[in-house]
Amino acid sequence: MKIKIVTLGCKLNFAESSALMNTLLARGHTRAKQGEEADIVIVNTCTVTDTADHKDRQAIHRVKRENPNAKVIVTGCYAKLKPEEIAAMAEVDHVVAKPDKEFRHAYSKDDRTRCFLKVQDGCNYFCTYCTIPMARGRSRNPAISEVVAEAEKALNEGAKEIVLTGVNTGDFGRSTGEKFIDLLKALDMLRRSDGTEDYRIRISSCEPNLLTDETIDFIAGSRHFAPHFHIPLQSGSDEVLRIMHRHYDTQLFSERIAHIRQVLPEAFIGVDCMVGVRGETEERWEEYVRYVKSLQVSRLHVFTYSERANTKMLEMDLYVVPQKERERRSKVLHRISDEKLAAFYAENKGRKATVLWESKQDKGLMYGFTENYIKTSRPYDRQRVNTFEQTVL
């Protein structure tokens, strides 16, 4: 049969969709070509916010319009949390909602340059606003040796950049008794079957309480790890962090940022920020803004809070931020993010860097990212795709 998979949400979902497609291809099915009607369409969903749920439903409607004769199968986090809601949709033929208890290997390439490698799944933190532990289950991971084998396979298939992904990536080792830093050390020693080792590794989102100074120092001195950090903050108010049941405070977060800047002054630091959660009073919001402005980071990834069923926050007697105010606060942080990103690019102007060129072509240009995640471009040259090149920013 001709198969099409539509993926929404995080890079972990994309890795898992890729693994699923490879399994189906190995069983004799084929991938539907672009514009070709499929026999089966699988929609791999996200449910991190109400907006994500809405996008899931839009995608289901769209794939049925584009593939009117196809069987539509829905899976992923939205399917696990709200299977009855999805099953009631006229376009849906099957819902696959069985929660996983074991780790399932997965990696995907968005093009032939970058590989998203799943190293961890699930979460034990149970933040008061979040449904991910209900959708993904408890934290679990494979052995370091298994991750190394998957990474070597990706390199031998041509990948030049590996991005380590997970629900709570820094929690690696919970189910095997190993340490996250030992995983990083093993991956830093990888080589292709031909003996070459021209590759780099990025770490996706890592909780500040799990991103230790030892890990930061190792990355600073490593051969292959990029000076690129993605660290969830979620709020700049300690009282709101307590309400959220986060595992750190602003002092610890500031210490992590300061240590990165000390040993890797050129590093890109992306920070997750949530606005409008219950309990975020005007006073706490102003505290949040002052704190974020003070941080020497490169970019903010801003999310607007939406109430999620069966979360602890709904049981708390807290101030509820009006929807319009949530939207206004989101715009404030987006403006701060734009200013920080512009400043980061300006600081790097004239610096020597290494770009990994990607295959996408747009109006005669090709694009790539430096080790510290600065996007750059040049006239398209097919011979440069998936190669490293020294440049001056």
Describe this structure as you would to a colleague.
The protein contains 12 helices and 16 strands. With 393 residues, it is α/β, with parallel strands linked by helices. It has 3 domains: 2-95, Rossmann fold (3-Layer(aba) Sandwich); 107-348, tm_1862 like domain (pyruvate-formate lyase- activating enzyme, Alpha-Beta Horseshoe); 352-392. The strands form 4 sheets. It has a 5-stranded parallel β-sheet with strand order 2-1-3-4-5, with helices on both faces. Helix 6 packs parallel to helix 7 (180-187) and helix 7 (180-187) runs parallel beside helix 8.
Topology of this protein?
Elements: E1 2-7, H1 11-26, E2 30-31, E3 40-45, H2 50-66, E4 71-76, H3 77-81, H4 83-87, E5 94-95, E6 107-109, E7 114-118, H5 132-136, H6 144-156, E8 161-165, H7 180-187, E9 200-203, H8 213-221, E10 228-234, H9 238-244, H10 250-263, E11 268-275, H11 282-294, E12 299-304, H12 323-348, E13 352-362, E14 365-370, E15 375-379, E16 388-392
Parallel strand pairs: 1-2, 1-3, 3-4, 4-5, 7-8, 8-9, 10-11, 11-12
Antiparallel strand pairs: 6-7, 13-14, 13-16, 14-15
Helix pairs in contact: 6-7, 7-8, 8-10, 11-12
In the CATH hierarchy, the third-tier topology of the largest domain is known as pyruvate-formate lyase- activating enzyme
- Output the radius of gyration: 21 Å
Please state the average pLDDT score: 95
The main sheet comes to:
5 strands, parallel
What is the name of the CATH architecture of the largest domain?
Answer: Alpha-Beta Horseshoe
Summing up helix and strand content along with how strands pair, one would put the structural category as alpha/beta
N-to-C CA distance: 48 Å
How do the helices and strands follow one another from N- to C-terminus?
EHEEHEHHEEEHHEHEHEHHEHEHEEEE
Please estimate the helix content: 25-40%
Q: Beta fraction of the residues?
A: 15-25%
By CATH's scheme, which homologous superfamily of the largest domain applies? Answer: tm_1862 like domain
Number of strands: 16
**Low-confidence spans: pLDDT under 50, at least 5 residues?**
none
Number of structural units classed as domains? 3
Mass-distribution shape:
globular
Number of helices: 12
Major beta sheet, strand line-up: 2-1-3-4-5
CATH C-level of the largest domain? Alpha Beta
